[in-house]
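Suppose a colleague, Dr. K., hands you the sequence of a protein chain of 472 amino acids and asks what its three-dimensional shape might be. Before reaching for any lab equipment, you can write down a predicted structure in C-alpha cell form. Begin with the sequence itself:
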Amino acid sequence: MSRILILDDDKAVLNCFEVLLAQARRFEVEALSDSTRAFDTLASREFELLLLDMDMPEVTGMEVLRHVRQHHPGIVVIVITGVGDVELAVDAMKLGAHDYLCKPVDSGRLIACIDRALERTRMREELRAIEAQRGPGLRFGEALKDFVTQDRKLLQTLANVEHIAHSDNNVLICGESGTGKELVARAIHQLGRRADKPFVAVNAAAFASALFDSHFFGHERGAFTGAESAKQGIFEEADGGTLLLDEIGEIELPVQSKLLRVLQSGEYFRLGSTRQRGADVRIIAATNKDLAAAIAEGRFRADLYYRLNISSVFLPPLRERKGDVALLSYCFLDRYSQANGKNIQSISEPVMELLDGYAFPGNVRELENIIAGAVVLERGATLGLHALPPYLLKAAADHGSGVPRHVRKALAEIEAEHIRVVMEHTSGNRTAAARILGISRVGLLAKLKRLGIGVDPAARAVPLAPHDEPTR
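The predicted structure, expressed as C-alpha cells, is then:
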C-alpha cells in the first residue's frame, strides 16, 4: 500500500480526504492539520505522496513544498488550492509539484490524480532498475542500452535479437520510422561474432542504378571519366563485418538484381578490374514499407526478399507499446535536464495525459525531440504544457475528443492567453494580429468569439491600419 500524508489546516477537509482515501483500500493515510509539525513528520516516516494545502498559517504550503523538494525529492506532491489561488498553484508546479486541484475537490478526480502520480513514481523506479541492470557483465543490456521499454511483446522481441545475433543469418528489420531499427541493427552487430569488425550503415535508396556499382563495389583508376584514383566500395569497407542497408524497400528494381547477384555468389568485381573479390559481409536490411505488398505489385523481387529475410525482427510503433510513453518521457526528461543543466523533476499531469493520447507518427524519435525541446523552454521544476511545441498543442486541440476535458481546458487557456498577448501587441488591430498568428482575419474573429476574448474599449478607439477593415 502507498503511504500518503495529507496536510491541511481545515479539519473538515482533512477528515473528508482521509475517509475518501481510506475507502479506496489502496492507501495508508496519515492526516496532519498543524503545518508546524510537517517537517518532523516527513522526516520520521517514508511517504510516497503528499496532498498539500497551500493556504495555511505559520508554515505555508509553499514553504513545505520547498522543504520537500530539497530534503525529500522522491515524494510526489499534489497541491490543493482555492479557486482564486490558481496563480499560486502554478508557482507550486514550477517548484516541482506534480499537479494541483482546486477546492471543492471532486473525489473521482482526486483518486485518479493520485493513482497517476504514483504510477509515475513507479515509472521512475523501473527506470532506475533498468539502469542498474546495464552492468558490463550483461551483454544484452549493454548492447540495447538505448531501448527503454516495459512492453512484453517488445521485450520478447529484444530477447530474440540476442539469439539472432549469435547466428550469421541475414536479417530483415521492419517497423515505422523512429522505432529504432538502426539501434537493433547495431545491437545485432555488437552481440555477434563480427563485433570487432566494421559496421557500415547506408541509405540504400540513395543510390540509383547507374551509381550502384561504383559505390558498392568500388572502382579502379580510369574506370570512367573522373575516376582519377582507385576507390574501395561499401562492400569492401564492411568486409568481415556488418552492412546495414536502410530503406531497402525504396531501391530500384535494377539495383535489386545487382544486390541479389552479390548475395547469391558472395563475389563481385570493382569497376575497371578483372580481379574477383569476395564479399564476406553480414547483411541487415531495414524498411518501413510493406514488402509483401511491394512484391504483389511487382516493385520488389520475391527472391531478394527471401534472401534478406532469413531472420526477421518487427518493431512495434510507440502507440502500441503499453506504458512506454510515460517511461520514455521520464527517461528523456532526466537525460535532457542533465544535458541542459536543468533541475526538472516531473512532468505535469496535463502534459502526460496529452502525450498518452497522441498517436506519435514519428514514434520514439518524435517523443525524444518533443521532450528535448520542452526541457530547454521549461523554467520551473515541472514540465508544463506551455513548453510543448505548437504543432503538438494544435494536434491535441484539433482532436480534442481523445483528450481529457481538463487537458482541453488547459490547452484552450494557453491559446486564449497567446491571442490576448498578440492583440495587446497590435493594439487591437485584428488584421495585424491574424498575420502574426498565421491565420486569416476571419479565422481570428472566430477564435475570439469561441474563446470569449473581447477587445478592450480603448483598443477599439485606435485608428484602423491602412489594411484593417472595419468589423461588420
